[in-house]
Amino acid sequence: MMTTEIVRPDIQSLRRAAEIIKGGGLVAMPTETVYGLAGNAYDPDACGKIFVAKGRPQDNPLIIHVSNLDMLYKSVKYVPELALRLAERFWSGPLTMIFKKDSIVPDATSGGLDTVAVRMPDNEAALNLIELCGFPLAAPSANLSGSPSPTSAGHVYEDLCGRIPMIIDGGECRTGVESTVICFTDDDTAIKILRPGAVTAEMLAEYADVTLDGNVFKKPDENERVLSPGMKYKHYSPKTEIIIVETDNAQALAEFLNEKAGEKICAVLYGDETGINVPRIDYGVTAEQRAHNLFAALRETDGLGVKTAYVRCPEKTGLGTAVYNRLLRAAAFRVVKI
Ligand code: TXA
Ligand code: MG
Question: Where are the beta strands (DSSP E) in 75-168?
Fold first, then answer.
């Protein structure tokens, strides 16, 4: 067990963090989406340590984080014109694009694929840290594999205390759900969304034809070769059993929950519901609030000593698509319609 230090994102601490990473070690860093567990993307041993610290399956590839376009060009075979236009519009920001990888990116980073996922995070501490290192940082979400992604330094500490030397505390993540992951199809003019995020299908549709990968809202079939390996694992789950409740009828929702009052349950609701007699956590009335609060709310259910948490289904458009996609996996696809 090593000691895990939590530091402020000042320049002295960022320099120390860069030294740890240059020496082959790992540091948890804030981004605008969720906290990332960062190591040298070009160093197979560093990436190996990321998989061990998280308990992550080796075939689930890592996203590499760049602070300028030179790092992108150095890491990939070629950059389609469409990708460049998207980078101009959405970087730095929560858009991850998949490219054919250059051999400088080791198989350990790409999970053995011949492609690599790249994004430029919109967070000053993260960008400064990458600049200080001088190479891209591979960074999956800084949680134990399977548990809800961390949106505060405290969440990272809960999961990775004793497994990593340093956490840079940049406060609560602004967005709260991970970046949108896209790939380009055939002729590089069409986009497929593999994981929805804050750069929405509606926003991307201004640039090209957009399709949602079939697995965004369903469980991949047994033995299916999925485009985004992360989609096939159980994900984002607290210890509490999560069940989604889908309804537009607040009265029916209250009756459904109140019937279970006295059982070991709680409810995760929007916040505007009244007459509910079970312990509750509110995660917001807008899609932005729900994205921001979802993972923290899922973690909070574990503190209530309940067996089951019924979570009110978010809207399924815009940013709500991302919230719903994460929640479905947290609930292992259990949905009750009332
Ligand atoms: O917002 C984010 O993207 C955060 C922050 C830290 O930047 N990172 C993150 O990383 O969510 P991670 O490792 O938890 O999720 C990466 C996702 C996985 O679903 C993985 O399967 C997919 O991206 N992915 C990575 N490389 C890929 C590739 N070459 N082809 C297809 N999918 C890929
Ligand atoms: Mg993750």
Answer: 95-100, 115-119, 137-138, 166-168
